[in-house]
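Researcher: Go.
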Amino acid sequence: MIAVIQRVTEASVTVENKVKGEIHNGLMILLGIEEVDNEEDIEWLNRKIINMRIFNDENGVMNKSLLDIEGEILLISQFTLHASTKKGNRPSYIKAAKPDIAIPLYEKMLRSLDMAIPTQIQSGEFGGDMKVSLVNDGPVTIILDSKDKK
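Model: Structure:
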């Protein structure tokens, strides 16, 4: 699994001109799922996401976690994170999980994060044509790949 994590002061996702999810002060996460991903990947990413110290403390130092600030999460599925651009000019998405694998894992990730934080998690619409808007705070953007956990 690949997660692109952005510290935001606000973020939202719109589907068919309706706001589906919206947060303030937290993390907007784009999540890409591969065929080989499993619950171990979810658990590892979950721990990293909620405990990563990327929020400023009273001295302006990134020393607080999402849990410390009681921040929010907006989770968006994004298969294009697994694009292969090695050949030609048209990206290949062969590594991205098909919906029958990706949807259950995405839903497990949503539940896992929702149980781990005190605020309600927001999400996009899996496979939907989404319009994502955000104000990146910092800017702080971090990429986590569960294949790098060892």
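Model: The first strand starts at residue 2 and ends at 15.
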